[in-house]
Each structure stands twice: as C-alpha cells, then as structure tokens.
Amino acid sequence: MNVAQVLVPTVVQFFADKYSLSISESEITFQTTRKEFEGDLTLIVFPFLKKVKETPEALGKAIGEYLCSHHAQIAKFNVIKGFLNLSFSHRLWIETLIQLAQQENYGVFPSNGEKVMVEYASPNTNKPLHLGHMRNIFLGDSLANILKANGYQVMKVNLVNDRGIHICKSMLAYQKFGKGETPHTTGIKGDHFVGNYYVLFEQENKKATAELFEQYKNIFPDENPETLAEKAAKESPWLLEAQQMLRKWEEGDPSTLQLWRTMNSWVYEGFEATYRKMGVEFDKTYYESQTYLLGKAVVEEGLAKGIFFKKEDGSVWIDLTSEGLDQKLLLRADGTSVYITQDLGTADMKYADFPMQKSIYVVGNEQDYHFKVLKLILQKLGRSYADGIFHLSYGMVELPSGKMKSREGTVVDADDLIEEMVQIARQRTRELGKIDDFDNAQAEALYQMLALGALKYYLLRVDPRKKMLFNPEESIDFQGDTGVYLQYTHAKIAAILRRASLEGISYSLETLRALEQLSQQEIELIELLQFYPQRVKEAAQEYAPSVIASYAYELAKAYSRFYAELSIFNEPDLLRRHFRIELSAQTARVLRAALHLLGIQAPERM
C-alpha cells in the first residue's frame, strides 16, 4: 500500500467539493515529513494558493480536516506555513508492511505493451574501453533494467564503430610498424594491442604536422601562423595516407579489408573479455560497416524528395537554418560517409528489427547537436519512429588531473581500473578481517563483486546530465554513500535472517497484525519501503538511475539506524521480535531489487 497514492484522489475530490476546481493528480506532491517536524507525510500546499483565495494555513487546515474525515488511518495533522503534515496510526504502517510482503513482484509493473530500444557502449575499434565507456555502459545497462521493471519490452543493443578514418589510423600505423606481431605473440590483450597503434599514429602524425608547419613558415613567411598550422594539419602525409586507406576500404580493396578484419577481430576478443568482467551483455550488436551503405541510400532518398541538396563539389547537405541550426554535411564530396550518414542507415535497420515506440541513445553530451540533427532529419524524412528518439546525454567523467584524451594515451583503461578496484577491495576487506572463514575462491568472487559494485554505484549515483570526478579510493569505502556500504548492509541483514532460520524462528504474517505500537525507526523504514515503486517510476520518467541509487542509500541508512537503536534477537516481546525480523527481510528484498536495477550484485555474506 502506498499511502500517498491512496490520499491523492481524496485531495482531488476536496478541491472539487469545496472550490469546484478540477485538479490533476500530477499537481499533488507528497513527501516524507522533515525530521524536525511532527508527522509522517507532508502535502505541499503552495501550488494551489493561486487557484483559491486562502492563506496557506487556512488551506492546509481545510485539506487536513477533509482528509481526516475520509481516512480513519490519519491520527492527526498540523500545518506549518504552506506544509500540511499528516501523522498516521501505527495500524496503517503495520498493514502496509504486511501488504508489501504479500506482493510477489513488488516494484515491478505489468507489461505496458510498449517496446523500447536502448543503445549504449558504442565503442570504436581503434582503442580499448576506458572510464568514459564505463559510465556509458553502466548507465545504459541500468536504464534497461529500470525500463523493464516499468513494463517495457526492452532490447539492449551495441553499435560498434568499426569503420572510418580513426580505424584507418590504427591500421596504417600497424602496417608501417607492426612487423607481423599479434596480440598472441606479444601477450597484449587485443583491444590494447590495437589501441597502442592508434596512439603511435597520433604521435607520428603530430611530428609530421610540426615539420610541415616549419616548412610552410619558410615558404609563406607573411601568412598567418594559425592558417599555416591548419594547412599543415590537413596536409600531413600521415593523415593523407589514412584518408587514402579509407577510400580503398570503401572501394573494397582486398588487402585493406583483410587487414581491417584481422585487427577488428583482435579488438572484439578484447571487448568481450571486458564486458564479461563488467557483467553486461547485449541482445544485438550492430556494426557501422554494415549500415553505412544503408545510410547512403537514405541520403539518395532525401535528395529525391528535395530534403537534401548537393553542392558543386558533389557533397550532400541539409539546410536546417530555419530550425535555428545550420547546414549539415551528410556525404563528403568524394562519396565517403560521415557519422550521421551511417546513423541514418542504422536507425532504419534498428526499427526494422525491433519496431519500438522509444529509441534511447546513451551518448555523451558532446554529441547533443548531432542527435538534435539526427532526430530532425528523420522527422523530415517521415520516419514513424523519429518522435520516439531520445538522447540520454550524460556528462563526461574526469579525473583530478583533468580530462582524458584517447589519442594521447591518457585515458583510464577499463581493464586496469577494474583490476585496481579489485586490489583495493582485497586490501580493505582483509584489513577489516570480515572474511576469515572464506576459502580463496569465495574471497576472490567477493572482491570482484565489491569492486564492480563500487564502480557501478559511484558512476550511477550522480545525475547523468552532470559531469563528474572519479576517485577510486573514495568509491570503495565501507561507510558513506558507496556501493560497498549498500552491499554490506544487505549482507548484514542476510546474516540476521540466517540466524533467525537457524534458531527456528517462524511466524505468519497474520500474527503481526496483533502488534499495536511501533517505534519511530520502524515507521521510518516502512515509509521508505512503500515509496520504492514510485521511485522506480520516477527513474524511468527521468531516465536517471541516480534516482534508484539515492533511494537505495536512504534505505540502507534508515536500516542502519534501526539496527543500531533497536534490538532484534534480544527483544523480550516475541511479537515485536517477529515484526523486526520481517521488517529486516522486506528491507533486504527491496534493497536487493534496487541494487539489481543498478546492475549490482547483493552478497549474502561479507
């Protein structure tokens, strides 16, 4: 039973009866009463003052009296300025816990008949996965879990950027310096192996550009240095050769394609190993090499419909100036595609595979403009799925030292970070002596669980739209707002339930109805438990796993207070003891469900 949901229709009826006003349920906001005030639930009155000629106190009093006359469970109320604080009978909270315990799929909603596709990860095959990818992947995976819980049929997809100039850069550097070495002969993981050649290309290209710039300064002494620097960057022999390789790839040159297939296979093997470590998987993987030709067909369609136009050099554009944007390139003059070309083709392919009402792209906020353009173009082309496109734009992850840069080799590698987190988990856990009875296999499994829980929670607890700083040491603390703290709380409750089982404690839910009084700590926990389904809905509406992370932390803190201030097994009253065991069981159940939505495992022992 969600008490707030029960009261909302009564508030709507109050305004209809007293003021003949039609108020929508979405306008009514209940929240947990602040600790310094008396009450369990608070109605915010201020939004209605413009609609009625009353003072906040008078309106709050009138609503409070109306609610009391219609709901016997409300014991009393008080009004402080524009806040109506309601206090409920203990009987209501006891019944709420019993009803919650009887719901088999608490916080999971029935099918709503809608399909949603979540696209995330989207790595390039010229470098390994890094910290930025981890925020992307954990956001996408968690959002997919949250949408499933809200009744959507969800398809999780990964679009691999396996072609383009950046891929050719790695290929060219390997062609020049590889000398036939492979990941197998060097012992280097495949994605790292290829990524090293991407960094090598950028180093060599930087040197070549600098040399060319010095030559141009001598040849054109009166020219603006910035203009010469741009000219040198565009005409660097390394870049020109990479561009030539891209043209050969698109023309189907056999030797170029063979090198591309070989190097990509090394990268895919590396990616799969990292995905397994992260505990994520996809329902389908798309490859840009399979969709860019479809994108070219879409460009031809747009030209035929007069939506796109061709410039004298043969390049294809769309003019979006009337929409407050600018002209956007869709196809280069040499016929090669750009990012949006293949995105147009991929969008059509995805809808053909999975006709969805919503299509969510989990991509960093540096691509905000790109996705505005993509959605607008698809709308102009008359695609039925275009209105359902949503760009989950998230902020970048930065380090205390600043922004990461792949081309300079200054990123935080995902594999290295996971291993570092495992090492920290191992060290912290051993220092605390919490697993002395674990064998080696059990201990190592726990370290992995804690490391990933710490990583996922730390990256998900921040609102996706905000950029964030990452601190590995801080993320794995056993106290405070961390994933490990939530996991430890669950393990602590699991130990309590095991003890109850070993001691043969049994009871029926019906017997708990005989209890008459609750402590404030018990009421606080039940209040939080009843809000879980509402938080699941909010997380889906806001596309924000951070809503679930925040809720889980509040629940764990409330249980810690309950555990510290009240006795369970030493409670002399048998009925109270049973109630507290059941309250512990339901807290563990909801905490476990919330952690699952975040992609975090809940350990039974720690």
Question: How would you sum up this structure, described in words?
Answer:
This protein has a 5-stranded parallel beta sheet, sandwiched between helices. It is an alpha/beta fold and 606 residues long. The chain has 21 helices and 14 strands. Mean pLDDT is 93; it is low at 404-409. It is globular and about 90 Å long. The longest helix has 30 residues, at 190-219. Among the domains are: 3-88, Arginyl tRNA synthetase N-terminal domain (Gyrase A, domain 2, 2-Layer Sandwich), CATH 3.30.1360.70; 163-282, no CATH class; 414-597, Isoleucyl-tRNA Synthetase, Domain 1 (Orthogonal Bundle), CATH 1.10.730.
Overall mean pLDDT:
93
* CATH-assigned fold name of the domain at 414-597: Isoleucyl-tRNA Synthetase, Domain 1
Termini Cα gap: 33 Å
Strand content: 5-15%
Q: Major sheet: size, sense and barrel closure?
A: 5 strands, parallel
Taking all Cα atoms into account, the compactness measure Rg is 29 Å
What are the segments in which pLDDT stays under 50 over at least 5 consecutive residues?
Answer: 404-409
- CATH class placement of the domain at 414-597: Mainly Alpha
Assigned CATH architecture of the domain at 414-597:
Orthogonal Bundle
Number of strands: 14
- What is the structural class? alpha/beta
Count of helix runs: 21
| Net shape | globular
Main β-sheet, spatial strand arrangement: 7-6-5-11-12
Percentage of residues assigned to helices: 55-70%
User: Quick one: CATH superfamily of the domain at 414-597?
Assistant: Isoleucyl-tRNA Synthetase, Domain 1
